[in-house]
Design goal:
By secondary structure, the chain is α+β, with helices and mostly antiparallel strands. It is built from 22 helices and 24 strands. Helix content is 47%, strand content 16%.
Length: 807
């Protein structure tokens, strides 16, 4: 132990004598360790870390999936009840159901998101209320007193976090609820819930509106085993709607992070490349430092120090650099995590809770140990492999070094360049993909469109007549607003179409389509003037008339993409089609009365998303247990769509002050939000590629600068013997560009194979896009040449007289 402490003290003194070297080495490792730690903290939170509940690593969601498509639904109450009584694969099953309320308050009514759960919900998770108590079993029975728990954030936002909230009543819709408690802070998976109510599970209910099922596997059971058992139980439950659907058991992490699920491992690999480049840079610095200390090392070896002892001393120095780099890297990581959470787009809300915890600290410690070994072993071995006679006779640094020292440095430089090419190509592909997304033809003019989504109070608007009257008056007044050129109603507006799994489909006269049938489509219910207001061109036939604007009308308008899929080479107008998969209603023949243009929906991310199916709106659709839904008001204006928002809010309030303020957004902003995650991924990978490029350039510059300093005498002799300036400059540039070009070639080959992992993140760009590859190579060659030219220019300024006088 005393030897190690002496080595550490000696290493610290040696590093203090070379502050420039120490600063560059520590900063280089700090950047690599810090960036890697930031991305790992996100990977740990979203992909690796169990949820912070009892048995969090065994928690799963249970769904019912269409056997012929990827479409999934929550199970019915009857199926859920049977699972709770008969399943042995779980040590707990907790159903839940979301709902919407209107809460009255002096400032005006607001929309409130509610979640119904069983009384044992918090105990199942191993949690207790932050204030008050949980529901009792009696409060979950039909006809019991109305009680509610407040969400933690909602409690602070609406009631200032006052502890005297217990026992007070709040009005949700037309009922008074007594507040009995406050839910715990940061209740993962349910953070959107504002209020919590007791759930009454009706075991005989086979309605479509099912229940979310959160369950915990028993130790030793796998999701596949649980799926088989649940399928067998569900088969015994009479269910005409989803009787043949299969069970899917999935971990909650499957639904976290959105596009980050596929992007995070790629980003972690990219930042790992950056760390390797940083280690190679430090190794190059240590090699140069070891060469400059050859005379010192030779003297120590001549005086009896063993080569192993000297190598250990060199390793201790690299360990000290790694520890200092790790400490600074953690500071950078702490800042980087906060920057990541602040700069993330709103759609990536799961990044809000990443942080530096014990697992991340352990990961950082492993990085420090790894970087100390990777960057230090080779320089330590090379430093002790010196010729004592040559080193002691010559005062020129590096004269006693092994003949392979230059080759080792060239290999490290080539490796840095190779990794940089892979990162640059990947960043170029994402940039090209983002540009293609932004250029994508949406199929309509998004500019000038604003949407207003509303929730109506249940009491007064429970009848269809009242709902239609409200919608008609709102529509008439909206059309009279200044600058408004059109207004219409639909259930949703692009890009927020509902997604429906149809399973197999049948075309009249041709039978089932089988594998060629579209499995998932974007579906909407629209008013007759919808296509004209939104700007979707009618390519054939016609749109809905007033007589057809009703629920249950057996007519449909489809997009061109869907027409080409269902009726290739034919005129789709007048044809009839139906779904033959089991669904909420018996299959009906639907007559195609029109074909319209494709609309980029649901993320502009694939051909199947361009398959649209439109049915008449009818001013009446609603789901059991949900508030009356008038749909989405869509308004087109010739001016600034955002400036219309306050007028629409005032319009709704003037018609009925009891209706909560609508959720307003421009359609252009919706598409901008869809691009936020790809843009965020592109920026991150671009930053890592830029950092890799800078580090590689610094490494190449350092190697050549050292080579120029080492060959000062040789260069002086060449100049004294008449060598031209351009020849000396070309010699140095060639010495640096050869390993750079080799690294570039190897990197292009590596990128050809590795960029395939980016396929899921790309849009409109192939993983082997020529522009991205050529662009990356041009940038790298230009950077490498610049890094070589500066030392080469310095070499031509060597004074031959000064060089020849050197020892």
């Amino acid at each position: 132990m005393s030897l190690i402490s002496r080595d550490v003290r000696f290493a610290v003194r040696a590093l203090r004598r070379s502050p420039g070297f120490t600063f560059v080495a520590v900063l280089t490792l700090a950047l690599g360790i810090g960036a890697t730690t930031v991305i790992f903290s996100a990977v740990n939170r979203l992909l690796l870390e169990p949820l912070p509940f009892t048995g969090g690593d065994r928690l799963v969601y249970v769904w019912r999936q269409n056997p012929n498509a990827s479409f999934m639904v929550w199970p019915s109450a009857a199926v859920t009840d049977a699972w709770m009584h008969d399943a042995h694969s779980f040590d707990g099953i907790q159903p839940n159901r979301g709902e919407l309320f209107q809460m009255d308050r002096p400032e005006g009514p607001i929309r409130v998101r509610g979640t119904q759960v069983l009384p044992g919900f918090l105990a199942f998770l191993g949690l207790t209320p932050a204030l008050g108590r949980m529901f009792s079993p009696d409060e979950a029975r039909p006809g019991a007193a109305q009680v509610v728990l407040l969400g933690y954030d909602f409690w602070h936002r609406e009631f200032g976090g006052r502890p005297d909230i217990l026992g007070r009543t709040i009005k949700l819709d037309d009922a008074l609820y007594t507040v009995i408690g406050v839910m715990p802070k940061r209740l993962a998976l349910f953070e959107d819930a504002d209020v919590w109510n007791p759930l009454t599970l009706v075991g005989s209910d086979t309605a479509v509106m099912g229940y979310g099922v959160l369950a915990r596997l028993r130790p030793g059971f796998t999701p596949e085993q649980a799926q088989r058992e649940l399928d067998a139980i569900a088969a015994r439950v009479p269910d005409k709607v989803f009787g043949d659907w299969k069970t899917r058991v999935l971990p909650p992490q499957h639904f976290l992070g959105g596009t980050l699920q596929s992007a995070l491992p790629i980003l972690l690999g990219a930042v790992g490349f950056v760390l390797l480049i940083a280690c190679a840079n430090v190794a190059l610095l240590l090699l140069a430092r070891g060469a400059a200390r050859e005379r010192e090392i030779a003297i120590r070896l001549s005086l009896g120090a063993g080569r192993r002892r000297v190598a250990r001393q060199m390793l201790v120095e690299s360990a000290c650099i790694a520890v200092a780099g790790g400490a600074l890297g953690l500071l950078l990581a702490w800042w980087g995590v906060h920057a990541l959470t602040e700069l993330r787009p709103a759609s990536l809300s799961d990044l809000a809770h990443i942080g530096i915890d014990a697992h991340v600290l352990l990961f950082a410690l492993i990085l420090v140990m790894g970087t100390a070994i990777v960057s230090g072993v080779l320089p330590a071995l090379r430093a002790t492999d010196v010729s004592l006679g040559a080193a002691l006779k010559s005062g020129t640094p590096g004269s006693g070094g092994a003949a392979g020292s230059g080759r080792v440095r060239s290999v490290l430089v080539a490796g840095e360049m190779m990794l940089s090419v892979v990162l640059l190509v990947g960043a170029g592909l994402l940039v090209r993909s983002l540009i293609e997304r932004q250029r994508a033809d949406l199929g309509f003019a998004a500019g000038g469109l604003i949407t207003a989504r509303m929730t109506l109070p249940k009491g007064h608007y429970s009848s269809t007549a009242n709902r239609i009257a409200f919608a008609d008056e709102l529509l008439a007044r909206a059309r009279s607003l200044p600058g408004v050129t059109g207004a219409t109603f639909a259930m949703s507006a692009p890009p927020q179409y509902g997604v429906m799994g149809l399973g197999d489909m049948e075309v009249e006269g041709r039978g089932p389509l089988g594998p060629t049938a579209p499995r998932t489509i974007a579906i909407d219910m629209v008013s007759p003037d919808y296509f004209g207001v939104v700007g979707i061109p009618v390519l054939g036939g016609r749109t809905f008339g007033d007589a057809e604007n009703r629920i249950g009308a057996q007519v449909v308008v489809i997009s061109k993409g869907m027409a080409d899929r269902l009726f290739p080479g034919e005129n789709a107008v007048g044809k009839r089609v139906r779904s033959i998969a089991k669904g909420p209603k018996p299959a009906q023949w639907m007559t195609v009365i029109g074909v319209v243009g494709d609309v980029a929906a649901m993320g502009i991310s694939g051909e199947r998303r361009h398959l649209q199916w439109y049915q008449p709106f009818g001013q009446g659709p609603e789901l059991p247990g949900a508030p009356p839904d008038p749909g989405t008001l869509i308004v087109r204006t010739s001016g600034d769509a955002a400036a219309l928002a306050p007028l629409l809010r005032g319009l709704v309030h003037s018609i009925d002050p009891n209706v909560p303020a609508p959720e307003l957004a421009t359609v252009a902003s919706h598409y901008s939000e869809l691009l936020a995650a790809p843009r965020f991924n592109t920026i991150l990978l671009g930053l890592f590629a830029a950092l890799a490029l800078v580090l590689a350039a610094v490494g190449l510059f350092g190697v050549l600068s050292y080579a120029v300093a080492q060959r000062t005498r040789e260069i002086g002799i060449r100049v004294a013997l008449g060598a031209q300036t351009r020849d000396v400059r070309a010699l140095i540039v060639r010495q640096g560009m050869i390993p750079a070009i080799i690294g570039l070639a190897l990197g292009a080959i590596a990128a050809f194979f590795t960029t395939r992992v980016l396929a899921s993140l790309l849009y409109g760009v192939a993983p082997h896009d020529t522009t991205a590859f050529v662009g990356a190579c041009v940038v790298l060659v230009a950077t490498a040449f610049t890094a070589c030219y500066v030392p080469a220019r310095r070499a031509t300024r060597v004074d031959p007289l000064v060089a020849l006088r050197e020892e």
